[in-house]
Structures are given as C-alpha cells and as structure tokens.
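hiii so um. not sure if this is the right channel but i have a protein structure encoded as tokens and i wanna go backwards to a sequence. like what aa goes where. can anyone help
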C-alpha cells in the first residue's frame, strides 16, 4: 500500500514503539498524555509487522522503543525472532533504568543499545528521573561487559545545551560509539514546557562550532534543525522518493515516515494488526498532504 501511494519501494529501518507505558515521565517526551494509555503490540503483532516490512520493503533493521521497551514483557521473544529468524539488525532505545537482568538475557541478539540521556548528573535527572543518570551509566558498563555496542541520544534544550560536550566526553569514557542529538519539538510533554525551547538560534551555531573543534573521538550526529537557519525543507514523503531511511509505528499501529510528524497525529498509513496489512487513510492533515519534511542528520 505504501508503494502504491508514494512510489517508495524500500524502507531501511522500522522504528517500532512496542508500548506507551514508561517508568519515566520526561519533561520533553513527545508522547505526553499517551504515556498513560494501554495500547501495545502483542508479540505476534510485532513480529507480523516486522516480517511484513522485511518482505515488502526490504527493511533490514528494527529499532525497538516505547514508552520504555524493557517494560514490554515479550521483548525477548520479539528480539530473538527478529535477529535469529529474520536476520535483521536489532537496536533498542531505552532509558537504561534497572534493566540489568533483562539486558543480560537478550544481549546475544542485540546489535546496538542506545541510552537516552539529557545531560550530566543532576541536569539529566531533573529532566528525566532522579537516579536515572547513574542507572544509565551502570547499564552502559554492563552492556560493554556483555559485548553489546552502545550509543546515546540527547534532545537539546535550553537546560542542557551547555552539557552536550561534557556528556559526549562521558560517553567516550564509557565506550559509547555515537551521540545522537535531536532538536526539541513542542509536542506531548514538551508543549507544556515552552521554557525548554532554545530561544536564541545562534546558540546552535556555537554548539556546532564547539563540536567541530572539540577533538572528540566519539561520533556525534545531529539533527540539521540544530542550525541557526534550521534544516532545508527537503525529504518530504510527498516528493515520492524510491527509498527512505525509516518508518515509525506507534502502539496503535499508526505509521509515520517523517520524524517531524511524529506526535502530531498526521498519519497517512496504519498497520491493521489483526489483518496484518497496511492501509491508507488520507486526511487533510496527514504528512503526505502537508508534505512534512523528514529530519536530516549529519555528522558534527
């Protein structure tokens, strides 16, 4: 169905939000009130979508998210099937809070563990949860011992923009291979915290220059919206590319191709779980009609 409507023939990665439930309620979380909802994939539905994407669009990698994916009871089943039966790469994006037992269980089937952090020590804990910073570092240590490659992700806000470099250096020490920086989008919880928005866009320019001259060994990639003029309006799904980098499925089955559309209920496609197929449900505000551009990432 996606191919018929858009001409897209290949989608490299599926971002699969297994559930909304989370043990955090971060100030910037794009899910907002949905964190309280019970929507979730069953293991059968999750592997059905993964298999469909593999067969129909040549999808080669899956990133499992939530909510918090380590709260998902059938995580091991989904991870094992994806890695062993389908031969696809598996990445998990987690807050890293008290996941030691479950991580040890699934470590042989995980290609990359990405831990979300919002700064160093108290800065992170004020945005995410008290004790979450040290818990995340403990998880990074364990992952390294288990032979799992690690990375980190950070959403740049007015509270933590000055801690990007310190966090990058901490991640280097803990063996993470990459730090991925996102631009804050005022949806979900972030819509209730406008003070987190970076008011001076020249601060992004200074950040990029600091990263360029820092001599870091860790790879830092960043959302091109973290530029003084913002990102160019390119990569709109409506332009009909033959290949795209990713598609995201939320716990209801709504599918979104642009990161800038995530959290805005601008879905043009849905995965019907019981029927195991994708349907097109166009609207006046979907990402195709509005030609919402995707996020462009570049190395710092």
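sure thing!! here u go:
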């Amino acid at each position: 169905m996606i191919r018929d409507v858009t001409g897209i023939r290949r989608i490299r990665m599926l971002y699969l939000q297994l559930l909304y439930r989370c043990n955090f309620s971060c100030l910037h979380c794009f899910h907002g009130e949905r964190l309280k909802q019970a929507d979730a994939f069953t293991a059968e539905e999750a592997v059905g979508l993964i298999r469909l994407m593999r067969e129909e669009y040549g999808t080669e990698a899956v990133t499992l998210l939530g909510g918090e994916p380590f709260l998902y009871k059938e995580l091991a089943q989904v991870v094992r099937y994806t890695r062993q039966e389908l031969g696809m790469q598996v990445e998990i994006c987690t807050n890293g809070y008290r996941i030691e037992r479950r991580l040890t269980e699934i470590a042989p089937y995980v290609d990359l563990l990405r831990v979300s952090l919002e700064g160093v020590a108290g800065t992170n804990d004020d945005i995410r949860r008290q004790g979450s910073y040290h818990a995340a570092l403990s998880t990074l240590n364990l992952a390294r011992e288990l032979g799992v490659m690690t990375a980190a992700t950070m959403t740049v806000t007015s509270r933590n923009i000055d801690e990007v470099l310190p966090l990058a250096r901490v991640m280097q020490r803990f063996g993470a291979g990459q730090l991925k920086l996102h631009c804050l989008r005022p949806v979900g919880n972030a819509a209730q915290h406008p003070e987190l928005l970076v008011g001076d866009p020249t601060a992004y320019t200074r950040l990029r220059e600091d990263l360029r001259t820092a001599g870091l060994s860790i790879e830092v990639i960043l959302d091109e919206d973290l530029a003084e003029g913002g990102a160019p309006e390119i990569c709109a799904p409506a332009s009909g590319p033959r290949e795209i980098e990713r598609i995201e499925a939320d716990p209801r089955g709504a599918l979104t191709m642009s990161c800038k559309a995530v959290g805005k209920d601008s879905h043009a496609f849905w995965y019907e779980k019981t029927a195991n197929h994708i349907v097109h449900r166009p609207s006046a505000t979907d990402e195709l009609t509005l030609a919402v551009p995707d996020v462009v990432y570049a190395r710092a």
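oh and The CA atoms of residues 22 and 272 lie 24 Å apart.
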